[in-house]
């Protein structure tokens, strides 16, 4: 049996430990060991962004990161966005603005948009398109995705901090 | 797609990383951002027995002004470059170049040092660094040496890095105030390599070109300096005829390989067009 390494990190606010082979990709650890199946496997070649998760303040494609690289990391997946059964403003906005069709790209799209709004709470349409360019939607629903991010940004700006 | 088994090392200092590299030699690969190496490992184009992750060495990351030059740690990410106020003020060509690389997620992880030392002519920093006349600091078990960008790239995946050496820092001379700049990159879609791209630095004096630096991406086995075009431009006004001649001379420098992005003639033509556009945009940003 291949040698395993114990890796500890914080996932959506909870401490987790996993024993993994060095070659295990983060997306597989999340989906198969930690049963967080929100991040999806799309292309497996770091193009499509369906596997996007947030690691230490960065949106990363979890198909192109080794789990052993995540020792001590703080991680957020789509599962960590709702609070006590209430959807995050981005999730609600994707629902209201019809920001999805088949839904496959949606967890990656929202997780990426979440980091964008942390960095730039009031992005222009051009900025949203540029900074979301690492996430592909094969239903070609980009128009409503952009609208949803704009709507969420407005809603979050109106909320007391 | 999962890579072949390997042993993972995460040294926390540069001497430790160099010692590991010395111990494992050809069996080892350095891991920077991983967005070239990990895909190659998944496809079994690379099967290192040892992977040495440089991501835990804080000294390798950061951007600073030192004695009239900008020093960039090799593990500095593309988004670090995009967001750097220092670079925006002193070397805006690098900001424009980094913005054209891959996509946001890749730019959070991908590093300037990885982009350079991979030796892929499709990468963007090689031509940007050639245009800027940058130098690379290489450190190995015997100490440190500095190699100019012009002397670093030998061919596809072949560079001046010797076995056991690590690229630690990039040193970029700050272009004089008033220098215009542009990086024009033709790509089929976000995340693709350039079909052709041109990096330009341009100084004007009295409406005429005082000096031009032109480097081309992905139209040869290495990044290419379009020296004939640079020499021709000195003393010229930038009009239709001189731009066409500069583009023609740049095209003569190219030796592209046909692939899914186009045949050799098309790529050569696009290198000329990117040169023309980059010169015009650099002029619009240059002091007259």
What does it look like?
The complex is a heterodimer of chains A (161) and B (288). By secondary structure, chain A is of the alpha+beta class. Chain A folds into two domains: 5-80, Beta-grasp domain (Ubiquitin-like (UB roll)), CATH 3.10.20.30; 89-156, [2Fe-2S]-binding domain (DNA polymerase, domain 1). Chain A has five helices and five strands, in the order E-E-H-E-E-E-H-H-H-H. Chain A has helices at 26-33, 89-96, 106-119, 125-131, 142-158, and strands spanning 5-11, 14-20, 52-55, 58-61, 74-76. In chain A, strands 2-1-5-3-4 form a five-stranded mixed beta sheet, sandwiched between helices. In chain A, helix 2 (89-96) crosses helix 5 (142-158). The longest helix of chain A has 17 residues, at 142-158. The mean pLDDT of chain A is 96. With 288 residues, chain B is an alpha+beta fold. Chain B starts with 6 loop residues before the first strand and ends with a helix.
How many beta strands in the DSSP annotation of chain A? 5
CATH class of the largest domain in chain B: Alpha Beta
Q: What is the makeup of the main sheet of chain A?
A: 5 strands, mixed
CATH uppermost class of the largest domain in chain A: Alpha Beta
Report the CATH topology name of the largest domain in chain B.
Uridine Diphospho-n-acetylenolpyruvylglucosamine Reductase, domain 3
From the spread of the alpha carbons, the general shape of chain A counts as globular
CATH topological fold name of the largest domain in chain A: Ubiquitin-like (UB roll)
Helices, strands, pairings?
The complex is a heterodimer of chains A (161) and B (288).
Chain A: E1 5-11, E2 14-20, H1 26-33, E3 52-55, E4 58-61, E5 74-76, H2 89-96, H3 106-119, H4 125-131, H5 142-158
Parallel strand pairs in A: 1-5
Antiparallel strand pairs in A: 1-2, 3-4, 3-5
Helix pairs in contact in A: 2-5
Chain B: E1 7-9, H1 14-24, E2 28-31, H2 37-42, E3 50-53, E4 63-66, E5 69-73, H3 78-82, H4 85-90, H5 92-99, H6 104-109, H7 112-117, H8 125-132, E6 135-140, E7 143-148, E8 153-155, E9 158-159, E10 166-173, E11 180-186, E12 196-205, E13 208-217, E14 224-225, H9 227-233, H10 240-253, H11 264-285
Parallel strand pairs in B: 1-3, 2-3
Antiparallel strand pairs in B: 4-5, 5-10, 6-7, 6-10, 8-9, 11-12, 12-13, 13-14
